[in-house]
Each structure stands twice: as C-alpha cells, then as structure tokens.
C-alpha cells in the first residue's frame, strides 16, 4: 500500500481479498514495515500478529525486518537464514476466555 497511515485507516479486509497481507515501509533503511493480515476463508478475521505472513515478506524482500503488525501494533522481528528458512521473534501473550487481545497487547506495549 502507499503508506503506513493508509494501512492504519483500514477498517477491514480490502474488498475481494482472502489470505491477504497489506504492508508499507515505515523506514526502509531500518527494515521497519507496517502490516496487517486477514484470512476469512479459514474463519480468521484479522490476525493481530501473523508470523507466517511476516516470514513470507522477509523471504520476498530478502532482509531482516521489524514488522509492526495488526490494528494494535504487535512487533514481530524476522531475519532470513537462507532461501527457505526465517528466524522469527517478538512478544506474545495468551488470551484468557473473555479477554480481548487489545487489553493484553496494551499491557505489553503501553
């Protein structure tokens, strides 16, 4: 997409999309991107921290990335190892029944 701000303004999956990740550079030199991913065909609305999509983007761009992912800005760090393997890291939380991911992410990042 054209800019991180354009991605932030999305209110849902771009029309006609499925298994769709949108992304834009925040800082190309630093390898920082803004990304969001949806997969409604498998019952997944927006994935707030899609590691598999981040790894595919890393292989496509063939460089280490810091991916700011989802509506709430989960941070995923990736690094290509070879043409098929990617190292992935970041923070994760477990959702308790009745809890929203936003409250858990807020605890980590705010």
UniProtKB/TrEMBL annotation:
Taxonomic path: Bacteria, Bacillati, Actinomycetota, Actinomycetes, Streptosporangiales
Protein name listed in UniProt: PhzF family phenazine biosynthesis protein
SUPFAM superfamilies recorded: Diaminopimelate epimerase-like
Origin: domain of life: Bacteria
């Amino acid at each position: 997409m054209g800019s991180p701000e354009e991605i932030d303004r999305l209110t849902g999956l771009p029309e006609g999309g499925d298994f769709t990740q949108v992304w834009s550079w925040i800082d190309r030199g630093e390898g920082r991107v803004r990304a969001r991913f949806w997969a409604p065909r498998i019952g997944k609305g927006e994935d707030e921290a899609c590691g598999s999509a981040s790894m595919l983007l890393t292989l496509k761009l063939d460089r280490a990335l810091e991916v700011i992912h989802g509506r709430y800005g989960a941070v995923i760090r990736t690094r290509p190892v070879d043409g098929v393997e990617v190292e992935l890291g970041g923070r994760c939380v477990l959702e308790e029944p009745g809890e929203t991911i936003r409250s858990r992410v807020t605890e980590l990042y705010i």
